[in-house]
């Protein structure tokens, strides 16, 4: 997973920048093809030894992460530029919520495949066990493959075509394809007004720093802190399950397929009880409550629950009778992460920055998040490995865990609580984008308010159901 995170970091920066240079649609297809090829190639990782197979797998997982990373800024930007003001937040959140459905589907696939192999082979060979993870990885490419046709049929966003590519005729034509019920007429005067009055500034210009510098700092820092907490909790969830006896200790598993099955079931329970409901609540409420209030509330409750798990961990939560209380608070942590900053950090950068830099700034913000995830992954992995060196991972009487995370869990969760607190305060750098037209970022500094109602604002009143279905797929 750490290798995929490194790939995602690079992909978000590169494809975010490319989306503002080549267009959203074209780069969107490139990222999908990269994901498909890398996912299938991962399943066919080969080598003369176990180490060489792992090396080959890591190589393809890096490029899979690179493609997935590129999908972040493009998916959010495309949906933001197609959606209307009233439902834009819900539409973008729905795109991100597909990640939650993916977690549920991935867990279900792992359960089904491992159960089938357990039923078919009472004593599976190493080659048969090796087939399990390869099949799981290969199945992951199937849903992505089904979306290729719809992605290629989708026209370029009118906002990119009109505001960045400066082709108003094509923008009107494309929007007529999408919104068949709308009679879109190209207004040359309106488009000319945008082109002549729009301040021409770059990412590293003094103008951008003045008007958007603190906003970019806010979106990047909040994404950084939420990913430190969110991904670190995900990475060590199996160790936590072992410590509170929701899963057997690794030394107690005789058959690897049994461990795969039990881990997938535990992950599915967390996804259904905490992760997926959090996404659903965000979709339903983000356009009513607002992005910033949801983000502040999410960070606040994440901090509370992280400290609630950390402070009494060794004295209370490790007791067997309290394990279900631990699981309940653990699920609530994921619920408020997703009904909070894990989703809103994906939404806000797509709404806040001007069209010519929208994908780039979203990519920078997302890459900051992946930097937090990488720091959390490698930093806490080192911390967990440096605990009790006298524990024998093969001896259930002296520990029986692959890493001595138990003694460090309280410290790690306290650090994650502090990260959530910092994310809470960094949120105040970001303005609320609920009810705000995307075009305000283009010309608000140059034109009177009365002139801001350009023809493209017609997109803010209506959007296409067809495009929502395409993006959700």
Strand composition percent = under 5%
> Could you report the average pLDDT, rounded to the nearest whole number?
80
Count the beta strands.
Answer: 0
Globular, elongated, flat, extended or rod-shaped: what is the shape? globular
Q: How many separate helices?
A: 20
Percent range of helical residues: over 70%
Major sheet size, sense and barrel closure? none
User: What are the segments in which pLDDT stays under 50 over at least 5 consecutive residues?
Assistant: 180-198, 387-394, 397-407, 443-459, 461-473
Question: What is the radius of gyration computed over CA atoms, rounded to a whole number of angstroms?
Answer: 24 Å
From N to C, what is the helix and strand string? HHHHHHHHHHHHHHHHHHHH
Distance between the termini: 24 Å
Secondary structure category: mainly alpha
């Amino acid at each position: 997973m750490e290798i995929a995170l490194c790939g995602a970091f690079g992909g978000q920066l590169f494809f975010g920048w490319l989306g503002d240079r080549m267009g959203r649609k074209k780069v969107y297809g490139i990222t999908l093809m990269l994901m498909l090829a890398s996912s299938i190639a991962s399943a066919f990782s080969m080598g003369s030894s176990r180490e060489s197979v792992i090396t080959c797998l890591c190589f393809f997982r890096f490029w899979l992460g690179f493609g997935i990373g590129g999908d972040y800024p493009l998916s959010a930007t495309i949906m933001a530029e197609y959606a209307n003001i009233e439902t834009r937040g819900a539409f973008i959140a729905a795109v991100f919520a597909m990640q939650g459905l993916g977690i549920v589907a991935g867990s279900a696939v792992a359960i089904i495949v491992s159960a089938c192999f357990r039923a078919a082979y009472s004593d599976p060979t190493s080659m048969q066990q090796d087939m399990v993870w390869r099949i799981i990885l290969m199945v992951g490419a199937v849903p992505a493959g089904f979306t290729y046709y719809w992605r290629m049929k989708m026209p370029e966003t009118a906002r990119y075509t009109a505001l960045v590519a400066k082709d108003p005729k094509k923008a009107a034509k494309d929007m007529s394809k999408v919104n068949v019920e709308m009679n879109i007429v190209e207004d040359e005067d309106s488009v000319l007004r945008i082109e002549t009055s729009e301040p021409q500034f770059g990412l590293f210009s003094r103008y951008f720093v003045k008007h958007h510098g603190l906003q970019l700092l806010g979106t990047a820092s909040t994404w950084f802190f939420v990913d430190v907490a969110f991904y670190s909790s995900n990475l060590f969830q199996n160790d936590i399950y072992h410590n509170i006896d929701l899963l057997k200790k690794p030394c107690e598993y005789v058959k690897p397929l049994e461990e795969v099955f039990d881990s997938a079931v535990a992950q599915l329970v967390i996804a259904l009880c905490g992760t997926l409901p959090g996404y659903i609540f965000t979709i339903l409420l983000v356009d009513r409550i607002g992005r910033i209030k949801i983000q502040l509330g999410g960070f606040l409750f994440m901090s509370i629950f992280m400290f609630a798990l950390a402070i009494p961990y060794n004295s209370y939560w490790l007791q067997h009778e309290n394990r279900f209380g631990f699981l309940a608070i653990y699920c609530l942590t994921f619920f408020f992460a997703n009904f909070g900053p894990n989703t809103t950090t994906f939404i806000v950068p797509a709404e806040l920055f001007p069209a010519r830099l929208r994908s780039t700034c979203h990519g920078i913000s997302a890459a900051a998040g992946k930097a937090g995830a990488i720091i959390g992954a490698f930093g806490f992995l080192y911390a967990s490995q440096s605990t009790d060196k006298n524990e024998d991972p093969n001896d259930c009487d002296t520990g029986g865990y692959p890493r001595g995370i138990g003694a460090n869990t309280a410290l790690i969760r306290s650090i994650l609580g502090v990260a959530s607190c910092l994310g809470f305060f960094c949120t105040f750098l970001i303005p609320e984008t609920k009810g705000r037209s995307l075009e305000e970022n283009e010309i608000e500094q140059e034109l009177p308010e009365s002139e801001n109602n350009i023809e493209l604002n017609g997109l803010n009143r209506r959007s296409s159901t067809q495009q929502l279905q395409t993006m959700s797929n």
